[in-house]
Structure formats: structure tokens, C-alpha cells
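Handout, page 2. Input:
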Amino acid sequence: MIEFQATKPSMKNPVHLLAFGFGSGLSPKAPGTMGTLAAIPFFLLMQDLSATYYLLILLAASLVGVYLCGKTADDLGVHDHPGIVWDEFVGYWLTMFMAPSGWLWVVIGFVLFRIFDILKPWPISWLDKRVAGGFGIMVDDLLAGVFALLCLQLLATFLVQ
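Output:
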């Protein structure tokens, strides 16, 4: 019987570097959480952009992410390798769209996104199991980001006055 040996990612390969969240996905413990943490500084750079520019970055990051995640998964021979965290980056950025300013909201967005990404309530779990390739890697985190965004906006509506 032949055993399949997955290839290791190369941080010298720009596709792997981005897919692995600039190395944050290499964490031996909780790579998705580390990837989400690594997304925060980028959010802080984007948070003051207009809604239009922010959405354009989200759209571009999502489309590029389909390629990055799919190509890296193919290169490594592992569908949705745990170290591929570009999807966490984009999911967190989606969560934080139009979020109120301040560290409290950065943390609330982080916690909400991680909850939805880890627990994968329906239909996130359904998509996670049925959609393959780079789009499949991205779509469950995008939907987790939508759920977290809605919760964050509800909290902001009732807590910020």
C-alpha cells in the first residue's frame, strides 16, 4: 500500500506565503486563530477607508483567495490544509466591515468570527462539506464572516448610542 506524503509549504513561494497568512498558519496550535490574529493589523490599516474601497478590497481579496487557497491546497496535496488561513483573513475583514472604532470592537469581531468559523452552524457546515477547491476553502469562512458581521452590527446597534 502506498502512503501519500503531503508536500510542505514554501514561504519563499508568494502563493504559499499569502495562503499561509504570512506564516501565521504555520502555528502548530490553532492556526486558524493565529491567522485571524494576523489579519488584525491589516484591518487596522483598512478601517478608515470608505465603504466602497473597503468592499473593493474584500472582493479582490476573496477572488484572489479562491486562487491562493486552491493552488496551495493542490500544491500540498491536502484539501483545506489547516495552515491555509487566507480565508480567515478575509472572513475577519468581512466581519469588521463598518464596525465601530476601538479595540473593544476589534476583539468582539475576532471572538464572533472565531465562534462561527469553529462551530460552523448550518449552512456553514453544509457548504464546508459540499463545496470543493479554492472556492470551497473560502466560502465557509466568508459565510462565517457574514454571520459574525450581522451579530457585531446588532451588538453595535444596541450598545452604541
